[in-house]
Amino acid sequence: MQEEFNEIFLKYHEIITLGVYGTAIGLMLIGLYAILTKKNLVKIVIGLSIFDAGIHLLFVGIGYVKGGTAPIFSPGYENAGNRMVDPVPQALVLTAIVIGFAVTAVALSLVIRLYKHHNTAKIDQIKSLKW
Amino acid sequence: MKKVLVIILLVIIGYFLAETFINIPFGENRIGDINLEKPTAAGYYLSNTTEKSKVANVITAIVVNYRGLDTLGEVTVLFLATTGIASILYRRKEEEENAETERLSLPSSNIVRSGARVLFPTIALLGIYVFIHGHLTPGGGFQGGTIVATGFLLMLISYKGFNTNHNRMVWIESLAGLSFIFLGIWGLISDNTFLGNIPEVGKLNSLISGGLIPLIYIAVGFKVAVELTGILDILLKIKPKK
């Protein structure tokens, strides 16, 4: 099973690399596109979340080790320390997800406040923002 | 016109990002041998958690023990987010009197309400299981707390009369936050470092193991569950302007 996996991994190594990094960078660009072009504030917050997801995928992807297991010493894996994936990016992403959640929640509450004040969530219709 | 400019900008950013990351080979082992005299940071964590902290889940050990102060800051950020949302959406008493005080929710059908009542204890139990077993299995305080909060979300959107007891929530949150700090001071007294660990009790891969780490994660789980429920409660109480 493990050898088979390694064989496939070596054979399609470039495609897998391109797939993981491509997906991560693609998600980041999609998020940035939404932030830069969309008028609706809710869609901008969704763009921020997509951007976050891309960064998390990039982090976890960099920490992957070929044929590695999850960094948990559960029964049967007590001596598997040398073939585990990198735990540091995963711990970092765990923090980043929570902070991303807090940012999204505060941003959405600001959007609600703006909507109540101006009766619209579209930034080009909020006149007081123009200068 | 603006869209074309944005797409050109994105192509430039994407090109430089891709050029940077294509040189980092995917799946390469950058940890090195973990039994060396001086391993890398990841190698140190992997080789020391089972012996020093007696925790099976290395990520839990990093989040709660090696970077425990960081996690305390993270919990503070969540608390600040809850407080911030409450103060951003705060309404004065006069406004409150004109609007109806009950929560905005669509009338849910009998099937949804019965299903929610059956599912809620199960979801809460799963969440509590996840944060109690944070040092043995994937998951932990933040994940388990979020699962418990989804159970509360189900109840909040299916029952109009379901109200969270605000006083009790404040008490649970404060006690969880204080116990995090007191566990840290306990570590300071016995291990000479704030949030230091006392791993003598129990053996690897049993429920009672890892010293202070599971206790801290249980406190974090309660705190996250209560805070997320508070955020959902505040956001669901908003009324659109008439």
Please tell me about this protein's structure:
The complex is a heterodimer of chains A (131) and B (242). Chain A has 131 residues and is an all-alpha fold. Chain A has 4 helices and no strands. Chain A has helices at residues 2-11, 13-37, 41-62, 87-118. Helix content of chain A is 68%, strand content 0%. In chain B, helix 2 (41-53) packs across helix 3 and helix 7 runs parallel beside helix 9. With 242 residues, chain B is mainly α. The interface between A and B is large, with 52 and 61 residues.
Structure in a nutshell:
With 131 residues, chain A is an all-alpha fold. Chain A contains four helices and no strands. Chain B has 242 residues and is mostly helical.
Q: What spatial form of chain A do the alpha-carbon principal axes imply?
A: elongated
Name the poorly predicted regions of chain A: none
Could you give the order of the helices and strands of chain A? Answer: HHHH
Assembly type: heterodimer
- SS field, number of helical segments of chain A: 4
Quote the beta fraction of chain A.
Answer: under 5%
- The number of distinct β-strands of chain B equals 0
Estimate the global geometry of chain B from the Cα principal axes.
Answer: globular
Summarize the SSE layout with pairings.
The complex is a heterodimer of chains A (131) and B (242).
Chain A: H1 2-11, H2 13-37, H3 41-62, H4 87-118
Helix pairs in contact in A: 2-3, 3-4
Chain B: H1 2-21, H2 41-53, H3 58-66, H4 68-88, H5 93-98, H6 110-132, H7 141-158, H8 166-191, H9 213-236
Helix pairs in contact in B: 2-3, 3-4, 4-9, 6-7, 7-9, 8-9
